[in-house]
Amino acid sequence: MPTSLPSSGHFELETAFEGASSILTLMSIIKVIEDPTQSPASSVQRRLIVHSASNIDADVLISPMLAHVEREGPPSPKPSCDEGSSAVVAILEEPEVSSTGVEIVPMNVSATMAIVAKATIVMAQVRLEAAPHQKEELELDLAELTKKWDSQVAELQAKTERLSVVKSQVIPLDPRILREQAQKGAHEIRDAQIVECVAQIHTFYPLSL
Question: What keywords would UniProt list here (predicted)?
């Protein structure tokens, strides 16, 4: 299938692949050959190998490395195109065919460990810097709680002292005395009612006569 190539003279590489949980290997070899009378083409070979960490959710660290770049002679006059999982379009201003291989490999263990160690050190420093501020906040909160508790204790002590004073001023009463006072009060009330009734009778009879 003929391919129309722009005259920008730049490589435009696009790759679409599904994410892998543990190991992803993408091998793509694309060859595009054009008529030399129109414009030269490029044959790009690219291999992508991604090895993820033991944890699936961990970030994958990869390091692109240039594998090889080769120059070849002019292409054949018959146009053809073999498509893989990637689409590669390459234009060269010079009348020659280029073959480029790019390999993306994971970073070595020492570099990964160094990055992790640096990140751990940075986090530790941040926590150490935040620790004094947190300590000051805790001390302020503790001081406020202590002041509030002291005020409540003082108020409770004052109430207890007032209750003790009132209790000391209370005169103990004998139940017999209370009973006599109640009886005396009842007799006084009865006598008062009798006197009132007699007064009403005296008032009524003179009027009836």
Answer: Coiled coil
CA 164 vs CA 94, 155, 157, 169: distances in Å: 110, 14, 11, 9
Token pair of 46 as six digits = 């690219």
CA 144 to centroid of chain Cα atoms? 29
Collapsing DSSP to helix, strand or coil, 16 comes out as coil
Last residue of a domain, one of 62, 91, 107: 107
Amino acid code (one letter) for 77: P
- In sequence order, what DSSP letters do the residues of 92-144 get, joined into one string? -SSSSEEEEEEEEEEPPHHHHHHHHHHHHHHHHHHHHHHHHHHHHHHHHHHHH
Among the candidates 90, 107, 124, a domain finishes at 107
Report pTM. Answer: 0.24
